[in-house]
Amino acid sequence: MKTEKIILGIDPGTTIMGFGLLKVVGKKMEFIQMNELMLKKYDDHYLKLKLIFERTIELIDTYHPDEIAIEAPFFGKNVQSMLKLGRAQGVAMAAGLSREIPITEYLPKKIKMAITGNGNASKEQVASMLKSLLNLKTLPKNLDATDGLAAAVCHFYNSGKVVGGKNYTGWASFVKQHPNKIK
C-alpha cells in the first residue's frame, strides 16, 4: 500500500479558481502550495473555461496528484451563475479524468465541517483553521486559494470513507454513475 500521496484540492470558479496541494505521508499532511487562477480580466466565458482546463492540466503534470478533491457547486438562486460554476467544475474534472485521476466532490458545508467542525463557518474561519493546522505563515488576500486547500484537507480527513461525496475514478465510472447524461 502506498504510504505517500498528493491531493489536489480545487475550488472552481469563473472569476477565481482556488487550488491547494497537500502531500500525505502516512497519517500526516504536509502543505505543498496554494494559489489562485485569476479570471476576472477575461470577458469570454469559453476562454475562462479553456484557462481553467489548461491550469488544472498544468498542476497535474507538475505535481502528479494521486487524487483530486473538488468543491461541488451549491444551489443558489441565480441559475446563470450556477450554470457557469458547474461548467468551471466540469472542465476541472475533465482535466483530472483525462489523466485518470480519481476525483471526489464535496459540498461546501461538508468541507467547512471537516475543517472547523461547523458547516456554516465563514471563509475566514476556514482559512484561520487551515493556517493553524498546516502551520502556514501567511494567508492569501483572496480566500479562494484556502477554499481549494480546504477541499484537499477535507479529502484527507475523509480518505477511505467516502461519505457525502461523489467519487469518480475515470470516465467509465462517471458514465456508470450517470447513464442518463450520456446520449
Which properties best describe this structure?
alpha/beta; Nucleotidyltransferase, domain 5; 183 residues; six-stranded mixed sheet; single chain; globular
Short note summarizing the structure:
The protein is 44% helix and 22% strand. The chain is an alpha/beta fold and 183 residues long.
Termini separation (Å)? 38 Å
What are the low-pLDDT stretches, counting only 5+ consecutive residues below 50? none
CATH class category name: Alpha Beta
The largest sheet has its strands arranged as 3-2-1-4-5-6
Largest sheet: 6 strands, mixed
CATH topology: Nucleotidyltransferase, domain 5
DSSP strand count: 6
What value does the average pLDDT take? 88
Q: What is the H-and-E element order? A: EEEHEHEHHHEH
Q: From the coordinates shown, what is the CATH architecture?
A: 2-Layer Sandwich
Structure commentary:
The protein has a 6-stranded mixed beta sheet with strand order 3-2-1-4-5-6. The longest helix has 20 residues, at 79-98. It has 183 residues and is α/β, with parallel strands linked by helices. It has one domain (4-177): 2-Layer Sandwich (Nucleotidyltransferase, domain 5). Helix 2 links the parallel strand 4 (67-71) and strand 5. The protein is globular and about 40 Å long. It contains 6 helices and 6 strands, in the order E-E-E-H-E-H-E-H-H-H-E-H. The protein starts with a strand and ends in a 6-residue tail after the last helix. The model has no long low-confidence stretch (mean pLDDT 88).
